[in-house]
């Protein structure tokens, strides 16, 4: 049956070219994922599939090509996975191959370095991985747009929900790694921004090798409550664990019974496989039919990055990176992304404006921005760095 | 209590006779169809209609009720008097919305999951054609002269003009994000395409030779409602073309647009997440499905006022009213 449909589709293509007045445009994009050595995740649900992110590219190519065939536009996306030390060479090979539209899923420092390498070749980079705030701020780059939300956006999304609930007294539990510390800084900033009070902070030291397996929960059950003992009166526990080594254990192992938010409990995500509002069921169905697994955030972000490219190509009939970038950052750009409202870009730092889903690992509990948080440009700009505080000058 | 209600409803049905107008409402989450008497505006009954019923229509004589049972990958056909399921029609996967040829045959169905429009013969119960369209096909309409079927694709953001003669796409018009619904004026010279996420209704004019041109986009503005929630979905045009009604989804309002100036003249407050709409045959009333408040709103068309709401099943989606 599938075979037949494909054949019909191809016949359709040739039928259409005759009638179409559009000009042929070939769009070649690249997706580069950089894999870092990491410990096993706490939950095996979080094991990294081999095709993480790349699967999103596959789906985006199908979606873009379906649209493209009505306009004479073709899409081809090459994908590559590299170790950190091989990332630069992998990008160089893509650029040498003529790719000028690059989607990256790497850490913050590598994303900046690769964006600079791409800039030298006149290529546009879409960041579908790194959430570092600096990339949207002082380390921003004119050729780098951000699809993934920043840590600040994610923390603001959680903070708004806590404030909407009238839970303003927080305890902040942070990890000791740099990624945990950056996340903790985002929660501190969010507390100040929305009027929450952090009554106490504690650092849960990463002593290495703390993954609890087998009967590990026995120790967790005895150790964590004492760690959480004697805190000032609080409404919520905010967890800042960017390296996934302790936060997952917090719920149910506190001293005082309180909800956990942030890196465990109620988590801010760009997307999740249980989401089916705003037509997302169609995305999930297409993704699962294509890959045989559930979608993850990086899959969605890579898909969205390539859909941004596809939308810009559709509207401009161009594959020129500069033309596409101008369109993406312009007033005309808008894109439906299964989040209930259009996504657009902040033209002063290249960050995509988007709602953030608050997820309990099963359902969408809420979506931020919350009702009542207003902004002169868009309620979405209540999430993350705002223009007046931005040190980004690359877009001036 | 429930059986009592049903028997009361049956008596009412017998008493009011076959000529009474009925509205059928598909309840997406309740997996049912609610039947409403359009004289008394009361619920007559509710019957099971398969999994995730969405698109709903009637045969030209009103005797057959067609329901897209999206999660069953089929169109279910019911007797509109007895509510007995008669048979199913092959629809292709995930049928969402459809439009019927004025003769009652064939049915043109949007397959949201498969980027296809399926043409189904309502008499032989066979598929006549599968037409590849854009990503997530949804809105469907047939031109009054039956020459074209128009389909909108939600992720491709196009209106595809499919010739009913050879099933080839003759024209594609790009519109704003997530086009949901298409509605022709009665003279066939113009059509309206709602874009849910774009927040606009595109006005497409049809030239003498049939060529469509995008001539205007209508935007919406309601004091106190964030622009993001003004999401046009269902569209209905009066037979005389003087008024265009647009359901604005989570804004809980129906916009009233003047057919001449194409300016919005009013917003009518209705139930929550207003989705699809249908006129009564005399066009005195317009019914809206309100997905989140589980009711329908009855609008007095001449007065442009909501006059009544009627509780229906869970998450009402589509509505159709029996012809005269």
Key terms for this structure?
heterodimer; A: 396 residues; alpha/beta; Rossmann fold; 10 helices; 14 strands; 18% strand; globular; B: 324 residues; mainly beta; Methylamine Dehydrogenase, Chain H; four-stranded antiparallel β-sheet
Q: What would you note in describing this structure?
A:
The complex is a heterodimer of chains A (396) and B (324). In chain A, 35% of the residues lie in helices and 18% in strands. In chain A, strand 11 and strand 12 form a beta hairpin. Chain A has 396 residues and is an alpha/beta fold. Chain A has a five-stranded parallel β-sheet, sandwiched between helices. Chain A folds into two domains: 21-149 and 271-354, 3-Layer(aba) Sandwich (Rossmann fold), CATH 3.40.50; 152-269, Response regulator (Rossmann fold). Chain A has helices spanning 2-19, 54-68, 87-96, 108-120, 151-164, 178-194, 216-227, 280-291, 297-316, 321-329; strands spanning 25-34, 73-82, 101-105, 124-127, 144-146, 169-175, 197-204, 236-240, 260-262, 267-269, 344-345, 352-353, 356-359, 364-368. The longest helix of chain A is centred in the last third of the chain and has 20 residues, at 297-316. Residues 4-18 of chain B have low confidence and may be disordered. The two termini of chain B are 33 Å apart. With 324 residues, chain B is mainly beta. The radius of gyration of chain B is 18 Å and the shape is globular. In chain B, strands 3-2-1-28 form a four-stranded antiparallel β-sheet. Chain B has one domain: Methylamine Dehydrogenase, Chain H, CATH 2.130.10.10. Chain B is built from one helix and 28 strands. In chain B, 5% of the residues lie in helices and 51% in strands. Chains A and B meet through helix 1, helix 2, helix 8 and helix 9 of A and strand 11 and strand 15 of B. Chain A: It comes from Donghicola tyrosinivorans. Chain A: Residues 68-205 form the Leucine-binding protein domain. Chain A: Residues 1-24 form the signal peptide. Chain A: Keywords: Amino-acid transport, Signal, Transport. Chain A: Belongs to the leucine-binding protein family. Chain B: It comes from Donghicola tyrosinivorans.
